[in-house]
Design goal:
The protein is an all-alpha fold. Its main location: membrane.
Amino acid sequence: MKKLYRSSKDSMLAGVCGGLGKYFNLDSTLIRLLFVILFFVGFGALLFVYLIWIFVVPEEGDVK
């Protein structure tokens, strides 16, 4: 079973996009670009979702 976590190695801010990249088997740069594009297109709430993920999704070393 796959688990979602924040990446400690592929991290720019908090590792959320790196963890999503590993979970969906995509390059984390594509996920980061998607976040930025969606933020500027009008989904400003995506920033709040990102902030929530920082506190809800565990870091890679904390996952057992």
